[in-house]
C-alpha cells in the first residue's frame, strides 16, 4: 500500500522559491517606500518616514499624466466596450466561413506591434486633417484624441473576446421565445441578452480600462507633447528613480487588496443568499454580524483603517533621526579623511627612510680610489683685474703703451 504524502523538502523549497519570486519584489518595494534613503533600498535602514508619498503627489508631471490617463481610460471604455459587444454579436450571427474571416479582421490589431499602431495612427489622422484643411491646433493633431483613437483600435478586440466567451454559454432560444411572444428585438436585447451579459460588461470595462491605463508602446507616439501616467513614469525612471515610485507601488497594492477583499465579501454573500443557508449561518443570521460583513461595510472599514494608518504615519517626524544619520555620516567621513592623512604621512616617512644618501665624491671618481689625483694638472689662477678698470669695459686696453726692455 503506497502512502501518499503532501510533499518532501524539494516541494517545500520549490513552493518557497515560487512565492518569493512572486511576492519578493512587492515586499521590497513596500519596505523601501518607508525608508528615508534617497535611493530605494532596504539596507542600510535609515529612518521611518512617509515623506515619499508627499513627493509623489507633489510631482506635477506625474499627477498631470495621471489625470490624462484617467480621461483617456474612461473614453476608451465608453467606445471599446460597445464596439467589442457589436463585434461579438455580429460573429455569433454569421455563418462559419464569414465568421472566420471577420474574426481574423477584428483580432488582427492585437497582433500588430504597438509601435506600428502608434505611427500609423499619427499618419492616418494627420492625412485626414490635412485633407480637410484643418490646422495643427485642431482635433486631428491633438495628443489626447490620437491616443484615444490609437488605443481603441486594439483594446476593442479585448472586449470582443470577453463577450464571445460569455455568448458561448447563452441559449439563443430564449431570445426566439421572447420574439414569438411579441417582444421587439430591442426589448429582447434589453431584457434578456443584456442582463445575461452584465458580468461580461463589467469584466470587459475593467479589462479595457487597465489595458488603456498601462499602455506605453502606442501611447508614447500618439500623445505628442503631452504625457500620460505611464509615459511620465517611464521618463522619470530613465532620468533617475527615488522611493516615490515605491510609494506608488504601495498605493496600487493597497487599492488591489481593498478591491479583492470587497469582492470576496460580495461573492460569499451572494453564495449564502443563493443557497438559502444565510438564515442558518451564525454570521449572516445575526443582524449585527450580517451588517459588518456586508461589502459596503467591509469597504468603509478598510478605508477607515487605511486613513488611520496614513494619519499615524504623517505624524511621524523623521527630522531628528535624519539629522542623527547625517551627523553620523559626517563623523564617519572625518574618520576616513583622518585615516587617509595618517596613511599619507606614514607613506611619506617610509619613502624618506628608504631614500639613498647623497655622495660627496665627484660624479665620475677614479677607478684607483684617487691615488693619482696629485698628478692632475693644476688650474692656473685667473688674472687679477686692474685696480683702476677702464670705464669703457677695457675696449681700449690694446692702445696703452708698452714699456721697453
UniProtKB/TrEMBL annotation:
Ranges of compositional bias, category Basic and acidic residues: 343-354
Subcellular location as annotated: Cell membrane
Alphabetized Pfam families for the sequence: BPD_transp_1
Family (UniProt): Belongs to the binding-protein-dependent transport system permease family. CysTW subfamily.
Biased composition (Low complexity): 376-391
The protein's name in its UniProt record: ABC transporter permease
Keyword field: Cell membrane, Membrane, Transmembrane, Transmembrane helix, Transport
InterPro entries the record matches: Bact_Polyamine_Transport, MetI-like, MetI-like_sf
Gene3D superfamilies with a match to the protein in the record: MetI-like (1.10.3720.10)
A GO CC term attached to the entry: plasma membrane
Cited PROSITE patterns: ABC_TM1
Region (Disordered): 343-405
GO term, biological process aspect, one: transmembrane transport
Domain ABC transmembrane type-1: 66-263
CDD domains: TM_PBP2
Transmembrane segments: 12-34, 66-91, 103-127, 139-163, 192-213, 245-262, 283-311
Record's bilayer topology term: Multi-pass membrane protein
Amino acid at each position: 500500500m503506497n502512502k501518499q504524502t503532501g510533499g518532501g523538502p524539494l516541494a517545500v523549497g520549490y513552493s518557497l522559491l515560487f512565492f518569493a519570486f512572486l511576492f519578493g519584489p512587492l515586499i521590497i518595494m513596500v519596505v523601501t517606500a518607508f525608508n528615508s534613503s534617497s535611493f530605494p533600498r532596504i539596507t542600510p535602514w535609515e529612518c521611518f518616514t512617509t515623506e515619499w508619498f508627499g513627493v509623489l503627489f507633489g510631482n506635477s508631471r506625474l499627477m498631470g499624466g495621471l489625470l490624462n490617463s484617467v480621461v483617456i481610460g474612461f473614453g476608451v471604455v465608453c467606445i471599446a466596450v460597445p464596439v467589442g459587444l457589436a463585434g461579438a454579436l455580429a460573429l455569433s450571427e454569421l455563418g462559419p466561413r464569414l465568421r472566420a474571416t471577420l474574426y481574423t479582421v477584428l483580432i488582427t490589431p492585437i497582433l500588430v506591434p504597438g509601435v506600428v499602431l502608434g505611427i500609423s495612427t499619427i499618419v492616418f489622422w494627420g492625412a485626414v486633417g490635412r485633407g480637410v484643411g484643418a490646422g495643427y491646433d485642431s482635433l486631428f493633431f491633438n495628443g489626447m484624441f490620437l491616443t484615444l483613437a490609437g488605443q481603441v483600435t486594439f483594446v476593442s478586440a479585448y472586449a470582443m473576446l470577453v463577450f464571445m466567451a460569455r455568448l458561448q454559454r447563452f441559449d439563443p432560444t430564449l431570445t426566439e421565445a421572447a420574439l414569438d411572444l411579441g417582444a421587439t428585438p430591442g426589448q429582447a436585447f434589453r431584457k434578456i441578452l443584456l442582463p445575461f451579459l452584465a458580468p461580461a460588461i463589467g469584466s470587459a470595462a475593467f479589462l479595457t480600462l487597465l489595458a488603456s491605463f498601462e499602455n506605453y508602446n502606442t501611447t508614447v507616439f500618439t500623445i505628442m507633447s503631452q504625457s500620460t501616467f505611464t509615459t511620465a513614469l517611464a521618463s522619470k525612471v530613465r532620468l533617475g528613480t527615488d522611493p516615490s515610485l515605491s510609494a506608488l507601488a504601495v498605493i496600487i497594492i493597497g487599492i488591489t487588496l481593498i478591491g479583492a477583499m470587497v469582492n470576496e465579501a460580495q461573492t460569499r454573500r451572494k453564495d449564502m443568499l443563493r443557497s438559502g443557508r444565510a438564515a442558518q449561518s451564525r454570521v449572516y443570521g445575526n443582524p449585527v454580524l450580517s451588517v459588518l460583513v456586508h461589502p459596503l461595510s467591509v469597504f468603509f472599514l478598510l478605508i477607515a483603517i487605511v486613513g488611520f494608518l496614513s494619519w499615524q504615519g504623517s505624524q511621524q517626524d523623521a527630522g531628528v533621526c535624519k539629522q542623527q544619520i547625517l551627523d553620523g555620516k559626517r563623523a564617519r567621513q572625518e574618520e576616513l579623511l583622518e585615516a587617509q592623512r595618517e596613511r599619507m604621512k606614514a607613506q611619506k616617512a617610509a619613502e624618506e627612510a628608504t631614500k639613498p644618501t647623497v655622495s660627496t665624491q665627484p660624479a665620475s671618481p677614479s677607478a684607483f680610489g684617487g691615488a693619482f689625483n696629485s698628478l692632475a694638472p693644476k688650474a692656473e689662477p685667473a688674472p687679477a683685474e686692474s685696480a683702476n678698470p677702464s670705464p669703457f669695459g677695457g675696449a681700449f686696453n690694446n692702445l696703452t703703451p708698452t714699456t721697453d726692455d
